[in-house]
Write a structure and sequence with these properties.
The chain is mainly alpha-helical. It has two domains: about 190 residues, Orthogonal Bundle (Fumarase C, Chain B, domain 1); about 290 residues, Fumarase C, Chain A, domain 2, CATH 1.20.200.10. A hairpin with a 5-residue loop joins β4 and β5. α11 runs antiparallel to α12, α14 runs antiparallel to α15 and α17 crosses α19. It starts with a helix and ends with a helix.
């Protein structure tokens, strides 16, 4: 069985994204779920009856843990989400917000959080009906979970804050949560202390953003690998660099996979143009090593993110009849994954930008005019496109600086080591958008090279023939921003199809 097939059997990030999609439905708790959840409720009730101190239930929150909690559980829970309702900024996308709640419900359902199945079902029913909090993206250090952002989600369930609402045309807008609940005929949720704490004490916001980022970077890597093969074919470059033997000698699975993706763009019997050098610049020759290393890192990160999604991130937790106070809400696993995703993203964007530079320079493009203009001097061709791509890569590098290196202690002496996981994931998400623009820029470069070199390869359909149609030959200079975006969208769709085909092929080989 392949490594990929094993991950599929154990559920991967793609399965999680499907499970949290708009058409997905959370099943009601089965008998085992109910037994686990009721058992944890009983453990908590027994501890309270025995006058044991339990964080957030008999005691205050955070640095106030030495002070007694309110005698009213609802007042305690309401106060928790109220004082944490300080997140700011534009809300995360509806898809991410829906995934956030799915992840919290998945954690609570495991039966370690002393959440009753009846309360869980109230939240699940609203999720199934499409109720989706609009969660502001900034304001948490991700240490005691993504407290502020998750509190904003909890407040939406309580009829405060905002929720995402989709109109008949499919357009989303953030509306008052009370209005969204009324539209469903649902009353606001009251949050008892334990349920409120179980909801906000989780890594689910940074995790959700990182899962979506991971998916996007996977598609981007696939797209740039295909563009690499396209450029090799157009240039007549030496294809030996993509021979499977190189990957077998080294033993890195990602390198083998990317080389196969590049070879898929080359016709049978493809040979080097004798005018091309024996060894191309590294941006072409070492693409399997660069993109393959990214692919291996993505696979490693997926394992960590899947475990986090399937686990329980809460404090305290109930385990085998005990209440355990600890730090399962600390998001360092997510934070380090997110930081690594950012570094990987930068490598893919940098490689694509360097390949675009190779196409634009006569010394490396086979003697075509600089900037791929048919009218050097009176025309400037792709000069603007290349400069913008360079700017995008620079900005990406700023955005993906490891957030875990920017930690500051807070909350008195309590949260003195924090991961900043959501801050990092938000930066990577912004960088992903720019990286796709670099990919679109390279795709436009490939289209213009094919036209200027007169390389009609007889293709029909997507993506290469369609790419030539959306970015026709430059007989004179024109604004290319829209063509870059259109090429980005085309490559995104194509990469999604390629990844789906790759997944089905590997699953088939494994007999799944």
């Amino acid at each position: 069985m392949t490594v990929f097939a094993e991950r599929r059997r154990n559920s991967g990030l793609a399965d999680i994204l499907r499970s949290a999609g708009w058409e997905a439905v959370l099943d009601k708790c089965d008998a085992d779920d109910v037994d686990r959840m009721r058992a944890s409720v009983e453990v908590l009730s027994t501890a309270i009856a025995a006058k044991e101190k339990v964080y957030g239930i008999t005691q205050g929150f955070g640095a106030l843990v030495d002070f007694a909690a309110s005698e009213s559980s609802v007042e305690q829970g309401g106060g928790l989400i109220a004082h944490l309702g300080t997140a700011q900024g534009e809300p995360l996308s509806p898809e991410v917000c829906r995934l956030v709640v799915w992840l919290r419900l998945r954690s609570m359902r495991r039966g370690h959080s002393a959440v009753s199945p009846e309360f869980w079902q109230v939240l699940a029913d609203l999720w199934n009906r499409g109720f989706t909090p609009a969660i502001p993206r900034n304001g948490t250090v991700s240490a005691s979970g993504d407290l502020q952002t998750l509190a904003q989600a909890a407040l939406a369930y309580a009829g405060q804050g905002e929720a995402w609402v989709r109109d008949v045309g499919g357009r989303w807008s953030a509306r008052p949560a009370a209005e969204a609940l009324a539209g469903l005929g649902a009353p606001p949720v009251e949050w008892p202390a334990r349920e409120a704490l179980a909801f906000v004490n989780g890594t689910s916001v940074g995790l959700a953003v990182s899962i979506v980022n991971h998916h996007a970077i996977t598609l981007l890597t696939r797209a740039v690998a295909a563009l690499t093969g396209r450029i090799v074919r157009l240039l007549g470059a030496n294809a030996e660099a993509y021979h499977a033997g190189l990957g077998h000698v080294r033993g890195q699975p990602g390198q083998l996979t990317v080389a196969r993706w590049v070879r898929a763009e080359l016709p049978a019997g493809f040979t080097r143009d004798t005018s091309r050098p024996l060894q191309e610049p590294y941006s072409l020759r070492c693409a399997p090593q660069v993109l393959g290393a990214v692919l291996d890192q993505l696979r490693s990160a997926e394992d960590v993110l899947v475990r986090e999604a399937m686990g329980c991130t809460d404090n305290p937790i109930c385990y085998e009849g005990e209440i355990l106070h600890g730090g399962n809400f600390h998001a360092m696993p997510v934070g380090l994954c997110s930081d690594q995703l950012g570094l990987c993203l930068q490598q893919v964007a940098f490689l694509a930008e360097r390949q675009l530079a190779l196409l634009c320079a006569p010394t490396t493009n086979g003697g075509l005019p600089p900037m791929l203009t048919p009218r050097p001097g009176s025309g400037s061709g792709l000069a603007g496109v290349q400069i913008s791509a360079t700017s995008f890569v620079s900005r990406i590098r700023q955005l993906v600086y490891p957030a875990s290196l920017t930690a500051l202690p807070t909350n008195g002496t309590n949260q003195d080591h924090v991961p900043m996981a959501l801050n990092g994931a938000n930066g990577v998400a912004e960088a992903v958008e720019l990286a796709w623009l670099v990919c679109g820029s390279l795709a436009v470069g490939a289209a213009q090279y094919a036209a200027l070199a007169g390389r009609d390869l007889g293709e029909t359909g997507a993506p290469w023939a369609e790419l030539g149609e959306l970015s026709p030959p430059l007989d004179h200079d024109r604004p290319l921003a829209a063509e870059v975006r259109a090429a980005r969208d085309l490559m995104t769709r194509a990469a999604g199809q390629w990844v789906l085909e790759d997944d089905l092929g590997e699953a088939g080989e494994a007999g799944l």
